[in-house]
Task: structure prediction
Amino acid sequence: MDGGYKNKGNSFWSPRWEAWARNLCSDKGKIVAKVDVKNAEDKTWHITNSNKREDSGYGRVRGIYYCLDISDDDTQPPVNIESVGGEPLIPE
Result:
């Protein structure tokens, strides 16, 4: 993922933010990016292609975080089929 943000304006009187993100591995699947906005509702973006996603609003951004979308079969992590005791969790 490529992304970033800018906090603009006076942090007390008129805080504004701009954020953007891009999925650099869109051929591998979808990613989920979360824009952490202080004192406001966070933004959650599901990015499937390589186009740049942008947004802006009132407040301050604390950061942008991302992960693979585990609901997408193409980006799920490998499944460990054995439990701690060695017994399979999935019957064979």
Summary: The chain is about 0% helix and 45% strand. Residues 79-84, 88-92 have pLDDT under 50 and may be disordered. Residues 2-71 form one domain.
